[in-house]
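This week, think about what follows.
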Amino acid sequence: MDVLTRRRFLVASGVVGATALAGGAAAYRLRDVLATAGDGDPRARTLVLVTLYGGNDGLHTVVPHADPAYRDARPDLAYSAEEVLRLDDGVGLNPALPGLHRAYGEGRLAVVRGVGYPKPDRSHFRSMDIWHTAQPDRPGTTGWLGRWLDGAGGDPRLAVSFEPALPPLLAGERGAGASVPVTERETTPRLGAEALAALGAAAPGESPARARAAACFADLRAVDGMVRQVRAADDGEGAEDDGESAPATATGGARASLDAQLDLVARCVEAGVVTRVFSVSLGGFDTHADEKQLQQVLLGQLDAALSRFADRMGRTDAGRRVVVAVYSEFGRRVRANASDGTDHGTASNVLLLGAPVDGGLHGEPPSLTDLDDGDLKFTTDFRDVYATLLERVLDTDPGAVLAGWRGRLTGVL
């Protein structure tokens, strides 16, 4: 697995450059976004885009367990009908996705099948470049949401990324979205250092129980300080010669947990900020070997984070206008390799989650026998998904962003 820094990943994509840098992505903090609290349109919907870097295996996310060709292609990796979380008689969700399975049963999860683009590319960088720009023939220098941002007024806070570097999809021609560090997530935002120290200090005349509680709190603060020092030291040792301290691989993805990223998204939505688009990510899906266990761990993280977020969003009017879209740069090949894994493939699923979503299975599932050199043939163009999100969530004309594209998903939003 080739190791690169995030900066090199962005440079390799060919999208980010002077435009994104001019947008001042790194100059924003959470307080800058929260400063717009109450300024958002209370009737507007919000898009949360979740990128799964590395090429998530769609056939082991939405499993066609009843298809004999699936078992024939993956005799040692295939899930049985008893293992999956049933959607219908033919397909089921990976067993690591119980929260999303519940959402499906409640009509809040749509599974869009066979999503891809013409002449697919199996390179992480090139394929993600295509997904970010929505220009499969010849990717340009702007992202599809960056172009939307240009037309929406250009305020970077309209499109916020909680990833360590601005994703190319938020780079416009005249500006870019805001990249906000997740390190600002705090469990006790109202207590300063002095107040926290006082909680761990002994007080004259206090009871033995209170003294023990104070001592325990002081110990916890000391351990937390040591952990922070170790992490800081690891970051310094891991820095590469281009100055980027946060390591990444071709699988990309933010270092902070998806749960932490979505926690900040939830805070912003509940505060009523002006932001209409949030970008978050989870990496590690390049499962060339020992896929079954690794993907279950990653999908378990995805499921837990999305389930908590969706449940939280269901408690407020603003949250009930949120739509989450989950995608990856490509799926995996149909046939397993010799290392109990799968190699880079083509078409996969896009998941849409939220109260505005008309749940269920959407789109035609690609054939597992009528293949393109061993890969799935896409049945839904990814620009249909983007056009639907632009029109139904962001209230904008998709043609202006997607070069006149007319395709749409039907019955999803």
The CA atoms of residues 287 and 341 lie 6 Å apart. The domain at 3-184+236-401 is CATH 3.40.720.10 (Alkaline Phosphatase, subunit A).
